[in-house]
Amino acid sequence: MYMSKELTSLMAHNKKQMYLFVIVTLFSVVFYLFIWDYFKTTHLFELLVNMFRQLTASITVGLSDLLGKEVEYNPQTGTVSSGIKHVNLVLPTGSYLFYTVLLFFYLLVPARKVLTVIALILFTAVFVSFRASAITVINLFYSHQVHNILLLWIDPLIYIPMFLSVGFIIRQNKLLNMLYAKVDDLFRPIVSIPLFYIVLAMILLPPLPRVLLTYIDTNLLDAIVGFTLKGSQWLLSLFGYFTVVSTKFITYNHSIIQLEYPCLGLGVVTIITIFVLVIRANWLNKISFLLFFIFLFSFMNSIRLAVTLLYIDRVSGTAGFDRVQTHDYITYFMYVVAFLSFIAYYFWYQDLVLIKRKTNEEIK
């Protein structure tokens, strides 16, 4: 109640900035829903894409030179070649929408910081292109195993400019800065490190388990895949369904599911682990909960595969069937399970007394 009154008072004294924030947010939503598809057909968008293409190609050639490799870029085919091997030039297409919308939020920054905003936009463009160039070079020169490990670390880098940009906007906007300070003060008694570092950890650490397991022994990842598939096979056998498991595949009738490493949910487990570890609580409660959660999540993953396999076998080939949509719906269910597990930990399990210590009177 006190926090609500304080926030109301804060917004009342910063009405101009609050209205600007609301307008920018609403315009960004409208742009995403109704304008983005049209904008992609304009000459301005084509010009921006060509700019990124040239920048990415130049950085790719420069990175290859640093590695002592000679490459050639063919603008007609959009490929980069070295000797007889050639790959498509990777472009940062997945980030176009987000960073276009982010431009609107720079309006929240005071006009006196316009040079800093321009520098940050240029840094973002170069950084995003550098990431795309790095992926192109990895695709061209590195073996499959090394390629997978490097990509795990490079993929999250797309969020670094976003993180810096949002942090800069919050710091420069008086209203947002004060709101962030209030939220940080609210969580300070609960968590052991500032929110800034928690968000940074959530960006950079999710690939860590797969990198470590791949670096130590790929067989460990294969063992987790096998455990999940065998769990699905056992669950289906309880209901009379005969399935066949082979390496990364589970088969029922003519339907097959391939379980790859990204489908293990290690990133979700990592994020929940970060949340549990930063909350101030007894370490015995933390460790025991995480062990239980890892087992629960693996078991739920087996259920997810079993349900998906039966659903695919039942409706495959029917009108309106969408394999990707089916997979996504059940994946969302996994996210709900993870979220509810964390809620149960925060509101119940972290305060649970697992080992009752004897008092002096009881000892006597």
What does this protein look like?
- This protein is mostly helical.
- It has 15 helices and six strands.
- The strands form two sheets. The protein has a three-stranded antiparallel sheet, with helices on one face.
- Strand 2 and strand 3 form a beta hairpin.
- Helix 1 runs antiparallel to helix 8, helix 3 (43-66) crosses helix 5 and helix 13 (283-315) runs antiparallel to helix 14.
- The two termini are 47 Å apart.
- The model has no long low-confidence stretch (mean pLDDT 80).
Layout of SSEs?
Blueprint: H1 2-12, H2 15-39, H3 43-66, E1 72-74, E2 79-82, E3 85-88, H4 96-105, H5 114-141, H6 144-154, H7 159-172, H8 174-187, H9 195-204, H10 208-216, H11 218-238, E4 244-246, E5 249-252, E6 255-258, H12 266-278, H13 283-315, H14 323-347, H15 360-363
Antiparallel strand pairs: 1-2, 2-3, 4-5, 5-6
Helix pairs in contact: 1-8, 2-4, 3-5, 5-6, 6-10, 7-8, 10-11, 11-13, 12-13, 12-14, 13-14
- Globally, the shape reads globular
**Tally of DSSP helical segments:** 15
N-to-C CA distance: 47 Å
Largest sheet: 3 strands, antiparallel
How many β strands by DSSP? 6
- Sheet-strand content, in percent, reads 5-15%
Percent range for helical residues? Answer: 55-70%
Give a quick set of tags describing it.
364 residues; mainly alpha; three-stranded antiparallel beta sheet; 15 helices; 6 strands; globular
Describe what is shown at a glance.
By secondary structure, this protein is mainly α. It has helices at residues 2-12, 15-39, 43-66, 96-105, 114-141, 144-154, 159-172, 174-187, 195-204, 208-216, 218-238, 266-278, 283-315, 323-347, 360-363, and strands at 72-74, 79-82, 85-88, 244-246, 249-252, 255-258. The chain has a three-stranded antiparallel β-sheet, covered by helices on one side.
